[in-house]
Every structure is written in structure tokens, then in C-alpha cells.
From TrEMBL:
Belongs to the TRAFAC class translation factor GTPase superfamily. Classic translation factor GTPase family. IF-2 subfamily. GO terms for molecular function: GTP binding; GTPase activity; translation initiation factor activity. InterPro entries: EF-G-like_DII (IPR053905), IF2_II (IPR044145), P-loop_NTPase (IPR027417), Small_GTP-bd (IPR005225), T_Tr_GTP-bd_dom (IPR000795), TF_IF2_bacterial-like (IPR000178), TIF_IF2 (IPR015760), TIF_IF2_dom3 (IPR023115). The gene is MTIF2. The keyword Transit peptide applies. It is found in: Mitochondrion. This is Translation initiation factor IF-2, mitochondrial. The lineage of its organism: Eukaryota, Metazoa, Chordata, Craniata, Vertebrata. Its main location: mitochondrion.
Length: 519
């Protein structure tokens, strides 16, 4: 069981049927955060078994999985689960699927549907027969000879084994000592394990295999190819790194050229504007600048008015880090606080992570990883926050709270009372005439110690304090509903009949980031 009772990793395992046939299953997470894992699993597999709860019906992730299967052009078998529950309605599920062009055999289509109960193991043999039948119709075959080809399902760093990948072999037979290339790294296979941790001698097509011997951790989804020698593997990796660097240089050059064009266009417009001026205007500009007016002045450093939250992301496997980064991409950069991922990687929290977080004054978020006692003590000494979660949505909630804590407190206004100006007059205070408003409190009360607003024609034209508040020529602190009073403001602003006086107080409240990651 995974934390939070939800699947959060992609799993690959082999099931042997009573007939002796073997089926490899890829179990992909259904949670919204793991969309990339589902898409990757769909492109690897030959048949998609779409599991839908009979009581819930077609959900958002179900629709997304259907789209993934269509994009990959993979046939679908629908397994309607939880049919043992009283509220189960398999027929409703079949009708809902029609809206997404999934036509079941009962309605004249070609999609098999099997009602099952995973909890009570009901009808699972019928599901097996449906899978085997479809596989026979599709005539699925693989070549077990020649150089190995495969795909990385998931990758991680193991403390004892080093970089490890879970892979599906698609062609050839993988053996110990084979030289493999995946992405920008390579491996000489030292060890192969099945899903139960048992050592394998040979991995044939369709078998899920844990491969040990990689120089670096390849990304999930990378294609695995066998090469003749270690020398050839190094050449392939060096070439791929070179190509990637050239692409980056080309992209950077395009950005630089675009900025240069923008600067040249701005310079041209500025020059044309200057040349269109008369000689007096030109002379005035020259005197002010005392420099060539066509020379672009260096831009002053403009400090951003937004807060920045530096993050370090560590996950147990590549797919987890990928899912978290995809969630962070949904964050609105226009919010008052911005996210800055300064580093992401696979494995437990390390001293290097702490040093990096200390330098950038950032926070370390770990997903299904560990921070040993020595690391926790060092983090406390360096005053670096280390937050570890094993449920994806808990991590997002924590991150949202952390973002909200960076915002300054907002101010809420609470109206205490309202009064209408019925008459205006002036009184002499020394040599100064002070405007006074004769008012009647219509709602609540006026408290001289609180804040006040003067509203005219629906618009606030003044905010401040009262210089005096009187009732029948007596100074008074509070005037209640229905009472008449005279008041003056602290800036001698003139009143008009019909103005509104509002008494209010303010309260600081914590602001919250309005971030919806989509689940």
C-alpha cells in the first residue's frame, strides 16, 4: 500500500496465468498530478485496461486516460470495478463512455467491457480471457534476437546499487554484461532483477526488469539501445550531449538576436523622433543630457516588487520529480510570490542540498525520501527548512502555505457606523475658519478614536481622523444610531450636504495564494 491509499508510482510486474501464458502489467497512478506517467505508460503498452469504478462512473482522469490511449493508438478494454457494491451501476458507466467514442460490444462497438470486483476477485478470469483474446487478434509478436531495445519505465538512485532503472525489454534478450545507452548516459549491466527482487539471467521481450550498472540516472521514458562496446557507448553519449549543447546555443542565440532587433528598432524610432524635432528642441535635449542623445543609456537596476521562494526538489524516482515539476508549472507567475526551482534531483537529502539551500535562502522539499539525523541537525544549524512528504497533495498544500506566508498581511476594513451630512457651517478657531458638518447617525455608531471616510457621490475623497466630535456643544467620544452630532476633520476639508461619513476600524489578515494545481 502506498501513502494516502493512492498509487503514486508507476509499477511494472509480470503475472503468470493458469494456462502458462504471461502478461506484463504497467500500473500507472490515477491521481491528477501524475498525468505524464499515464501518458508514458500508454505509449509503452500494447493494450490499455481502463479501470472505472462502477459507483463513481467516468471521472476527469478517466477521460484523460482515454485521450492518452487514442493518441497512442492503443486498443482499450474497460474493467468496471467495485461491482460488488450496492450502489454500483455498470450500465451507467457504459452509457457515459459513449460521450467519448468508447462504444462497448453491447451497443454494437468493438470495446470489451468486463464487470469485476478487485476486492473480492470476482470475474478476474473473464478479464484475463478478454486480454488474451485481444492479444491473439492483434497477433502481438516480438523478436528475441539481435541487439536489445527497450524503454525506461522509472529510474532512481539506490544507496547500495547506485543508479537503477525499471525497464521493459521490447526487442532482443538482455543479459549480464550488455552495453546499453539511454539518453545521455550508458550502462554495463551488472545485475538484473525481476519485480520480486530475484536475480534474472535473461530478460526477454515484454519482461519488466530492474537494471543495475548505469553511470548516471537516465530519465523516465528514455529509449534503451544496446551497442557493441563501451567505446561506442561513450561516443553515442558524447554526441548526444554535443547535439543538446548546440541546440541550447542556437536557442540562446535566437533569444539574443531577438533582443538585439528590439533594441535596434527602439533606437531607430528614438533617432527618427530626434531628427524630426526643430533645432530648439534638439538643443534643449543636448543641454539636459550633455551626451549624444542617440546613445542608449544603461538601464537602471529595477528591483522586482514580487517575493521569490527558492526551492530544491528531491524525489525517490524520476517520475515523482517530474510530477512535482509539472505541478509547479501550473503556478501563476503573476502572483505576488514567484517560485524559483534552483535544483531538482533523485535520492535522499544530502549535505550539498543543504549548502545550496543556505546559499539561496531556499526550502528543500522531499517526496518519499529521507533526511538522516545528521542532515536534520545540520539543517537546524544552518536554519534551512527541510520538508518531507509521502503524499503528493500534502506536499502541494504545504507549498501553498509556504508561499502564502511570504505575502505581507492584508488589511480588512470593518464598518462600525454611517452618518449623513444634513447641514454645513464654519466656526472660528483663532484666526482660522474650520468647516463643520451637522450629521445624523443612520447605522451603527461613530467612535472618535477610530478611522473615518468621507464619501461624496459614491467616491471616497478623504480618509483620516476626526479633530472634533460634539453633541449639543459637548465633546463626546461615541455617537449612536439616531443621534445628531457635529464633527470636523483633521484637514479642514469642506463638506457638502448629502456627503456620507463612515466610521471603520482595520484589521491585519494573512493573505493566501490563489493557486489551483488542478486536483
Amino acid at each position: 500500500m502506498e501513502a494516502g491509499s493512492i498509487t503514486q508510482h508507476i509499477g511494472a510486474f509480470l503475472v503468470q496465468l493458469p494456462s502458462g501464458e504471461k502478461v506484463t502489467f504497467l500500473d500507472t497512478p490515477g491521481h491528477a498530478a501524475f498525468s505524464a506517467m499515464r501518458a508514458r505508460g500508454t505509449h509503452i503498452t500494447d493494450i490499455v485496461v481502463l479501470v472505472i469504478a462502477a459507483d463513481d462512473g467516468v471521472m476527469e482522469q478517466t477521460v484523460e486516460s482515454i485521450q492518452h490511449a487514442k493518441n497512442a493508438k492503443v486498443p482499450i478494454i474497460v474493467a468496471i470495478n467495485k461491482c460488488d457494491k450496492p450502489e454500483a451501476d455498470p450500465e451507467r458507466v457504459k452509457k457515459q463512455l459513449l460521450a467519448y467514442n468508447i462504444v462497448c460490444e453491447e451497443f454494437g462497438g468493438d470495446v470489451q467491457t468486463v464487470p469485476i470486483s478487485a476486492l473480492k476477485s470476482n470475474n478476474l478470469m473473464n478479464l484475463k480471457e478478454a486480454i488474451v483474446t485481444l492479444a491473439e487478434v492483434m497477433e502481438l509478436k516480438a523478436d528475441s534476437t539481435g541487439l536489445v531495445e527497450g524503454i525506461v519505465i522509472e529510474s532512481r538512485t539506490d544507496k547500495g546499487k547506485g543508479p537503477v532503472t525499471t525497464a521493459i525489454i521490447q526487442r532482443g534478450s538482455l543479459r549480464k554484461g550488455c552495453i546499453l545507452v539511454a539518453g545521455e548516459t550508458w550502462a554495463k549491466v551488472r545485475l538484473m532483477l525481476d519485480e520480486n527482487g530475484k536475480i534474472m539471467e535473461v530478460a526477454s521481450p515484454g519482461m519488466p526488469t530492474e537494471i543495475v550498472g548505469w553511470k548516471e540516472v537516465p530519465a523516465a521514458g528514455e529509449e534503451i539501445l544496446e551497442v557493441e562496446s563501451e567505446q561506442r557507448a561513450r561516443e553515442v553519449v558524447e554526441w548526444r550531449i554535443y547535439v543538446k549543447q548546440q541546440e541550447k546555443i542556437k536557442k540562446d542565440q535566437e533569444i539574443i538576436e531577438e533582443k538585439q532587433r528590439a533594441h535596434q528598432e527602439a533606437y531607430r524610432k528614438k533617432r527618427e523622433g530626434f531628427m524630426n524635432m526643430n533645432w530648439r528642441e534638439r538643443a534643449s535635449i543636448l543641454r539636459k543630457s550633455q551626451k549624444d542623445p542617440m546613445t542608449r543609456q544603461p538601464e537602471k537596476d529595477i528591483k522586482s516588487d514580487k517575493n521569490m521562494l527558492p526551492l530544491i526538489i528531491k524525489g525517490d524516482v524520476d517520475g515523482s520529480v517530474e510530477a512535482i515539476l509539472n505541478i509547479l508549472k501550473t503556478y501563476d507567475a503573476n502572483e505576488e510570490c514567484q517560485l524559483d526551482v534552483i535544483h531538482c534531483g533523485i535520492g535522499d537529502i544530502s549535505e550539498n542540498d543543504l549548502n545550496l539551500a543556505e546559499s539561496f535562502k531556499g526550502i528543500i522539499y522531499g517526496f518519499n525520501v529521507k533526511a538522516h539525523n545528521s542532515i536534520q541537525q545540520m539543517a537546524a544549524k544552518k536554519k534551512v527548512k527541510v520538508k518531507i512528504h509521502n503524499i503528493i497533495y500534502r506536499l502541494v498544500e504545504d507549498l501553498q502555505e509556504e508561499l502564502s506566508s511570504t505575502l505581507p498581511c492584508g488589511v480588512e476594513e470593518h464598518v462600525l457606523g454611517e452618518a449623513a451630512v444634513l447641514a454645513t457651517f464654519e466656526i472660528d478657531v483663532g484666526k482660522v475658519k474650520v468647516p463643520v458638518a451637522g450629521c445624523r447617525v443612520q447605522k451603527g455608531l461613530l467612535n472618535k478614536k477610530m478611522n473615518f471616510k468621507l464619501i461624496r457621490n459614491g467616491e471616497c475623497i478623504w480618509t483620516g481622523y476626526l479633530s472634533s466630535l460634539k453633541h449639543h456643544k459637548e465633546d463626546i467620544a461615541i455617537v449612536k444610531t439616531g443621534m445628531d452630532c457635529g464633527l470636523s476633520l483633521n484637514n479642514n476639508l469642506k463638506f457638502e450636504v448629502g456627503d456620507e461619513i463612515v466610521c471603520f476600524n482595520t484589521k491585519e489578515v494573512k493573505q493566501k495564494i490563489s493557486w489551483d494545481p488542478g486536483f
